[in-house]
Amino acid sequence: MINGRTRLFGILGNPVAHSLSPALHNAAFKECRINAVYVPLAASDLEAALAGIKAFSFAGVSVTVPHKVAIMPLLDAIDPVAEKIGAVNTLVFKRKADGRLHCTGLNTDWIGANASLAEAIRLSGASALILGAGGAARAVAFGLQEAGVRVLIHNRSEDRGRKLATQLDCPYLTANELHDLRAEILVNATSVGMEPETDAIPLEADLLSNFQVVMDIVYAPVETRLLREAAARGCKTVPGTNMLLYQATAQWRLWLGEEAPVEVMRAALTEGLSRQQE
User: Fold this and answer.
1) Are strands 90-95 and 60-63 parallel, antiparallel or unpaired?
2) pTM over 0.90
């Protein structure tokens, strides 16, 4: 029951009505009998939204598109890893001695990506092509480099892709160079293939046989065209739901200081996706 002692959590973005994060976290709160609630926070005025979140004494907030980068200058502190990635997806609030609510930005997207891929392949010593140059691509690339993976970047906008590759000190590949590439891992870190454009694919299907494992961060639909085409060519596939789940369990640890009920959250995610597809 929500009452005066209920701890507040939420997801800040625009739009957020489609987000399955409330389903995951609220199911976990219920399972663990924690008096807390996790709500969607749709906002375009980021500075006003953050002021409101602090005024209502939120304990933790997830940050999603389009605010992962824009929110960084507004925070009291940024975790060194999130600073290096250049994007924040998690806010942790702590009350200071002077009564002020202090907000620290962190990033758990890279943890979710690494955990998802590690279930399919040994990361250390592997090579991975990452499609994209936005906040998600930055997080995935950082995490894989930390795990000992040789990262390569390709992006539809070559200027943005080369800029990210320079920041990561890794190779950038043009569209022509992709035809000769052989790598263990392919990660789609773009929104290509997301509903309603479900027939879109971020890479030529015939090139997918050059990879052993293909991961798509898109989770709606669960099985994107990219994953279907990859499976048809004998690749192991990793859906975006895995990354969503594992980044959420990492947030739970930051907010509550304990391990999350992973299987309860997985079941809530599956049920939420089923309802969205009805």
Assistant:
1) antiparallel
2) yes
